[in-house]
Amino acid sequence: MSVPENGGVPEAGVPEARNAPLWVQTLTVTTADQTHALGAALAEVLRAGDLLVLTGELGAGKTTFTQGLGEGLGVREGIISPTFVLVRIHPNLPEGPRPGGPDLVHVDAYRLGSASEIDDIDLENTLDSAVTVVEWGRDRVEHLAESRLEVELHRQLGGAAAAHHTRNGALDFESEDDDEPRTIIIRGFGPRWAEQPVLAAEGIS
Questions:
Q1: How far apart are the C-alpha atoms of 51 and 73, rounded to whole Å?
Q2: Residue 137: which of 106, 102, 183, 174 has the closest Cα?
Q3: pTM of the predicted protein model
Q4: Are the CB atoms for 161 and 155 separated by under 8 Å?
Q5: CA distance 131 to 71
Q6: For 160-182, what is each residue's pLDDT tens digit?
Q7: Which among 7, 14, 141, 202 has the fewest CB atoms less than 10 Å away?
Q8: What are the beta bridge partners of residue 105?
Q9: Within a 10 A sphere around the Cβ of 16, how many other Cβ atoms?
Q10: What is residue 138's DSSP assignment?
């Protein structure tokens, strides 16, 4: 089942206050390296229990951004788009830059149609001990935590990247143009994000 970019209509019972950001930061990146670096910079202010919701058309850079998060958190490498596996857990590495830090739980909600389907994958079991990143999670995961960051990525040239077949015949939904400019909007919700964090990422405005 395909899910629209905006995640559809919120389910009844989601408090309106959770949909009001405390602050909004808009950044521009021009390369995949900058997208990666921004993810790594954001990782420096994250801790166990944090929830991130990633939104963007296909090829917008969600996986590249998450790879940067993983590097900054010091978790096991190999982060890819989890489209065909709903949840991937990347454990923290003792020899990494943040030994003893949180694991990274990478979720793809593209094929999940509601908050109840999110509940079926039992994210609550890892939520308190990990940083949880949910692609396509808008209007599906807000009930999981009192606070969250929303990261919205836009390709400035417009339009989603076309999916293509990989060598094994599977469709690759995250074909990203390395040097295409992108706008990245970060929104903070809830008491955890009462103050806007300062992100130290070189070359990003």
A1: 14
A2: 106
A3: 0.80
A4: yes
A5: 13
A6: 444 433 333 333 334 445 578 99
A7: 202
A8: 89, 132
A9: 7
A10: T
